[in-house]
Amino acid sequence: MLARPLYLTGGLIALGLGIIGVVLPIMPTVPFLLLAAFCFTRSHPQWAQRLYDHPTYGRSLRDWRDRRAISRKAKISAVVAMGVGAAVTWFTVGFPWVWISLGVLTIAGTWIWTRAE
Predict the structure, then answer these.
(1) Burial class (CB in 10 A: 0-12, 13-18, 19+), 36
(2) 3-state secondary structure labels for all residues of the chain
């Protein structure tokens, strides 16, 4: 019985972070919306459906739910954003901290790029 309120709380937090990601360029949006949809499916399925029906983000959410797929445009955007983040890290804090950004770019970028389209 406690699970439903926890999923609702997690979904609302993830949705809030996703909304922040809409306006902050360094913060992702769709991963947080995916988490929100996951949580809402277990707490308020109608809210999850509203996310899946969203005119801007719904297609990406449905592609991931149905086929575990990421569009080519989203893949390119994600890898470029991580590359820019690594470059900013290099120019602002330098070594050895840039290795963290490069590690994230290598691991996460490879994982993203190998998903279905």
Answers:
(1) buried
(2) CCHHHHHHHHHHHHHHHHHHHHHCCCCCCHHHHHHHHHHHHHHCHHHHHHHHCCCCCHHHHHHHHHHCECCHHHHHHHHHHHHHHHHHHHHHCCCCCHHHHHHHHHHHHHHHHCCEC
Sign of the alpha-carbon dihedral angle for 108, 114, 116, 117: positive
CA triplet 59, 60, 66: central angle to 5 degrees?
85
- 16 phi/psi in degrees, rounded to 5: -60, -45
Residue type, 57: Y
Tokens of 95: 């070594």
pLDDT in tens, 20-42: 999 987 788 999 999 999 999 99
Q: Count Cβ atoms below 10 Å from residue 101 Cβ, excluding itself.
A: 19
pLDDT of residue 76: 94
d(CA 56, CA 54): 6
Task: Name the pTM for this structure.
Answer: 0.82
